[in-house]
């Protein structure tokens, strides 16, 4: 998890990252901050994939199963929701909280508390109204076309 938390900026001057930043291959150019994040993400997925506790415990909980079912709808809907309402809500909340110091973070958290449920709701509606019927139709077509 430490490798996934490499600072996006100033990593080469940050305690704990000075040495690791020096090991990043030159080919990463302006995206050097992605090198250790990528290695860390790969190691995390490898570790979680081999962990029975994660597979049988965390991934079998109802909320995680639900997020798995609507994951494609989340992928499709998060952008439109963020660009139509999310950023407007964020600006409105920052107008109320301000953007100096802790107020910036407080405004972000407050707006996220409104936008995340909105994204989940829109994704759920998309999943029920579009994704499920399309999958049913595709299965029907497969049955009709199969011998």
Computed over alpha carbons, the radius of gyration is 21 Å
Calculate the mean pLDDT score and round it: 94
Q: How many E-type strands?
A: 0
Q: List the helices and strands in order.
A: HHHHHH
Instruction: Compute the number of helices.
Output: 6
User: What's the main sheet like?
Assistant: none
Q: Which range does the strand content fall in?
A: under 5%
Q: What would the principal axes of the Cα set say about the shape?
A: extended
- What structural class do the secondary elements suggest? mainly alpha
Question: What is the helix content?
Answer: over 70%
Number of structural units classed as domains: 2
Query: Low-confidence parts, pLDDT < 50 over ≥5 residues?
Result: none
Kindly report how far apart the N and C termini lie. Answer: 50 Å
Pfam families: Acyl_transf_3
Domain Acyltransferase: 27-120
Protein name: Acyltransferase 3 domain-containing protein
Organism: Schizothecium vesticola
């Amino acid at each position: 998890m430490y490798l996934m938390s490499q600072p996006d900026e100033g990593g080469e001057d940050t305690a704990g990252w000075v040495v690791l930043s020096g090991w990043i291959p030159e080919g990463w150019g302006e995206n050097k901050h992605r090198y250790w994040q990528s290695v860390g993400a790969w190691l995390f997925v490898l570790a979680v994939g081999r962990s029975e506790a994660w597979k049988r415990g965390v991934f079998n909980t109802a909320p995680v199963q639900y997020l798995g079912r609507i994951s494609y709808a989340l992928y499709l809907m998060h952008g439109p929701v963020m660009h139509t309402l999310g950023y407007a809500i964020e600006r409105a909340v920052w107008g109320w909280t301000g953007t100096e110091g802790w107020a910036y973070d407080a405004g972000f958290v407050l707006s996220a508390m409104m936008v995340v449920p909105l994204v989940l709701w829109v994704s759920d509606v998309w999943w029920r109204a579009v994704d499920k019927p399309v999958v049913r139709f595709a299965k029907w077509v497969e049955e009709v076309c199969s011998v």
